[in-house]
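User: For my dataset I need records formatted as: sequence, then structure tokens, nothing else. Please produce one.
Assistant:
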Amino acid sequence: MERLKHLLRGEQAALVAALLLLCVVLSILSPVFLSAANLKNVLRDASLIAIAGIGMVLVILAGEIDLSPGSMQAVVGILAVLLLNQTESIFLALLGALAVGALIGLLNGLLVTRAHINSLIATLGSMAILRGGAMVGTQAVSIQAQVEGFTEVGTGYWGPLPIPVLVAVFLLVLFYFILHHTPAGRYLYAVGGNAQAARLAGLPVEKLKLAAFAISGVLAALSAFILASRLNSGQPNAGLGFELQVIAAVVLGGVSLSGGLGTLVGAVLGILILTVLNNGLVLLDVSSFYHDIARGTVIILAVYLDTRRRGRA
């Protein structure tokens, strides 16, 4: 109860109010918005961003940035479907996808921690390489899955809730506990708040950042696997702009781009706001070009709020 009161007194109260207001407006403009089917679609879409967003929160809290999740949606999805068709095993395809995600995350982390390349530049480069590799490797043609039951991962239900939503909720609870109730979580905040001070205090700064990138890669790969399941194929153009959606959502939710500040609860609120906005634009039959304008506006707003937040801190 005390934690809930603290939540409602803080900045996140404004996010809750904004989300509720957005839902009220959309329910008035479109009677379809509050239908059970549409709300499930909203949660399903939000779960993909949330799964990758958890990893993004870890990286940003550590004072870095990761631009590769969008391209990983393509590369990991294609490799997962190819492995699925070869082995006819959904489980092996999932393990392969997670392994590829971990490898990409580790490579990004090594570029930052060992080669000392700025994370924005390092992951921008990996984003371009991965996207180009997906296009070249498939000749820009999608790879169709040939195993029955694969679509259940992304479109199936466990009880009344979609499976991706349950996966996202489980991961959110797990990483909330890690960030707020374990030494590793406190160390990550310390590294993002002041890396030099953390290093002088004896914290393994480079290892913590490397772990954050690796986990981000695994979670981005899991999100990519679920998307491939929904599409029942690996698409070389999957995830275009996805990384911007993830970054905008978590920063809008209060995770500071300077590192060391923010919570998963705020990130979830930011993700829900962005997902509801996208869903509303689709329901209102707004041109996709305006979707890009809306996303760009949200990104600018998120960075502005982050700047104000740092100024107050």
